[in-house]
Amino acid sequence: MATPKLVGISGSLRRTSHNTMLLAEAARLFGDAEYHQLDIDFPLYNGDVEDATGIPAVVKAAERKLAQADAVLISTTEYNSGPSGVLKNALDWISRVEGNPWNDKPVVVMSAAAGRAGGERAQVVLRGFLTAFRPRLLTGPQIHVAACHEEFDENERLKGEIYVRELGQLMDLLRKDIAR
Ligand SMILES: Cc1cc2nc3c(=O)[nH]c(=O)nc-3n(C[C@H](O)[C@H](O)[C@H](O)COP(=O)(O)O)c2cc1C
Asked: Which residues have C-beta within 8 Å of that of residue 13, sequence separation ≥ 6?
């Protein structure tokens, strides 16, 4: 099989985002793969802008990358009990492009957040958002990294053995799902 293409989507645009770090850890644990993190720093969706100037090039490029991916990894932070607006905005814009890059695509969802639940509520909401796009959404192991500011070392590696083990299991399942 050709080297799998993985695309990551981080729900946080912060330069030192823990969700971006978690995605990089997931890609590392997946093993041999081409990994690309999607740029989702899109303008806010506004139907008037779409009518006047069409879908922004950055959105079209993101949709192309998604369509070409063998699997997609999404890590969301939790803002006020849900996924970030940045992530929802990206899903909304991408849904405006013709075709559906998510259809039957293996997708894993994870989260890292400061709170004790590690973004679990945001993940539940995010899974609901994704359902309409009909991906092959893996159900677990569920990864929600709590107190995320304490869970990565100076090399941006996950410290907790349980997180590493379960994320590795999730990546093994993803690899099998891609080969399906
Ligand atoms: C507007 C806002 C709302 C937040 N709400 C929550 C929340 O509901 N639950 C939680 O665990 N953390 C919450 N946090 C803290 C985030 O989990 C924390 O900032 C986290 O590090 C963000 O992820 P990142 O490192 O990938 O940017 C909130 C942070 C912000 C800025």
From this structure: 40, 41, 86
